[in-house]
Amino acid sequence: MAHILLLHSVYGLRPAVLAAADRLRAAGHRVATPDLYEVPAAETVEAGFALFEKIGLDAVLDRARAAAAGLPADTVLAGFSMGAGVAGALLAERPEAAALLLLHGTGGDPGSVRPGLPVRLHLADPDEYETPDEVDEWRRAMTAAGAELTVHRYPGVGHLFTDPGTPDHDAPAAALTWDRVLAFLADR
Q1: For 65, 86, 94, 159, which has the most beta carbons within 10 A of its beta carbon?
Q2: 142 and 110 in contact (C-beta within 8 Å)?
Q3: Contact 124/167 with Cβ under 8 angstroms?
Q4: List of residues 6+ apart from 18 with CB closer than 8 A
Q5: What is the pLDDT of residue 122?
Q6: What does the pLDDT look like over 4-28, one tens digit per residue?
């Protein structure tokens, strides 16, 4: 069983994030899903970016830190899209994290990676927010820093393909992602 801090996308704390947390809890994990915006979730990605701009990165990071503060040092840091970036940003402050689970976006400064840190990335191929060159550069840097990195690419799907409330949703890719995530977390 792992403790998991699961951070939402730029949309906000949506039903898909809560359903993902329930799926992880059903597998025996303890999951925290903080609302990094503290307002209702956006209905569109454009509205989500507007919310993020209004709230600001500093407030989002402060809320993520506050949520992490009460969790064990070896909590798995996880996030969807923007939340993946926030999870990666927390890694510098939580060097004992059990793993870094990134859904729909890269995250983590290679300078914050301890040797052997398990990192999993699940990403659309191609992804509209992360070019193949950016992902390859991030992969090289994380591997050089000592991360035990696996990148799972999902051809032909939209960016937020695990969220059934978005136009990007792809049921087969989402099912495969969750199978892989549960297998990965079973070892934590």
Answers
A1: 86
A2: yes
A3: no
A4: 33
A5: 98
A6: 999 999 999 999 999 999 999 999 9
pLDDT on residue 188: 80
Which strand (E) or helix (H) includes residue 68? helix 57-69
Q: How far apart are CA 129 and CA 39, in angstroms?
A: 24
Cα–Cα distance between 77 and 89 in angstroms, integer? 10
- Strand runs labelled E in the chain: 3-7, 30-32, 76-80, 100-103, 118-125, 148-155
What's the token pair of residue 177? 């992602």
**Size of the chain, expressed as the number of residues it contains:** 188
Residue located via tokens 């798995």 = 76
Calpha distance 162→168 (Å, rounded): 8
| Cut 0.70: pTM above it | yes
> Whose structure tokens read 């977390």?
185
**pLDDT digit string, tens, across residues 133-187:** 999 999 999 999 999 999 999 999 999 999 999 999 999 999 999 999 999 999 7
> Smallest Cα–Cα separation from 19: which of 35, 6, 2?
6
DSSP one-letter string for 33-63? ---SSSSPPPSSHHHHHHHHHHH-HHHHHHH
